[in-house]
Amino acid sequence: MQRELVTHEKLSSLGLLAAGVAHEINNPMAFVTSNVRSLSRDLAAQEELPEELREYVDDVLPATLDGIRRVNAIVADLKRFARNDPEEPVEFDLNAEVSSALRLSQGERRGRCQVELELGELPPVMGQPRQIGQVVLNLLVNAVQAVPGQGGVVKVRTRAEEEEVVVEVRDNGVGMSKEVLGQLFQPFFTTKPVGEGTGLGLAVAYGIITGHGGRIEVESALGRGTCFTVRLPVAAEERVTTPLPPGEGRGEGL
Ligand code: ADP
Ligand code: MG
Fold it and tell me: For 83, which of 42, 142, 152, 223 is 20 to 30 Å away at the CA?
């Protein structure tokens, strides 16, 4: 449990840091965003444009705007992470988040490994769908980075289990030693070269899943592979409970 305490402590200092960084980036980014938008609008409206500027309108500015959107999305995530009471929780379908995480991981995979997807029938979960999607994406990216160049297989499975929904991300990659297993949820713990890993993926996943009242478990064998299992409670409305007397309960207070 000591380890969990340390993780919590580091996560809250990380929250403070994230809040500071988000705040500092926010204002200059708002300025950059609006300037680049008006520049591309104005240039696009020009009837006769020299060839060099045409390239800006067609390629450079759209790519710049993509970059800006990405930075803005990261800043929004940092703020949410820092606030710790993100958006209003909603009921959502975990399978939809798994599918979209899979699409987002395509860039990382670049056809490098095979992905097998098995979606079970699931009751809805309550919480922040985007955050849960982020967790699945972080697990997928790790799995893809862990598998060999040839013959790598990542299996993603969802299933319902009593009052929980479960998502499993399994790979046949490098696996982990006991030392690594002991530290992998620590913020900034990474075994990857600079530029490839920040060591934040699993710390963030841990924060998000425990924040949803769920658990994240890992099994790994060195040289054979790893399986991460995320368990989330089923939305309260969907749980099988003792029926309430007529006129009470369901739907009230919503
Ligand atoms: P990062 O991926 O940036 O290093 P993470 O928090 O996502 O940070 O992961 C921390 C460390 O845990 C990784 O550097 C790696 O050593 C280990 N790890 C995570 N997932 C896997 C996996 N599927 N297979 C092997 N090692 C893993
Ligand atoms: Mg990672």
Answer: 142
Ligand 1 pocket, Cβ-based, cut-off 6 angstroms: 138, 142-143, 146, 171, 173-176, 180, 184, 189-192, 197-203, 226
Residue 11 pLDDT: 64
DSSP letter, residue 238: G
**Tokens linked to 223:** 């040289």
Kindly report whether the global pTM for this prediction surpasses the value 0.90: no
> Which is more confident, 79 or 253?
79
Ligand nearest the Cα atom of residue 168:
1
Is residue 241 scored above 60 in pLDDT?
Answer: no
ipTM for this model:
0.99
146: left (phi over 0), alpha (psi -120 to 50) or beta: alpha
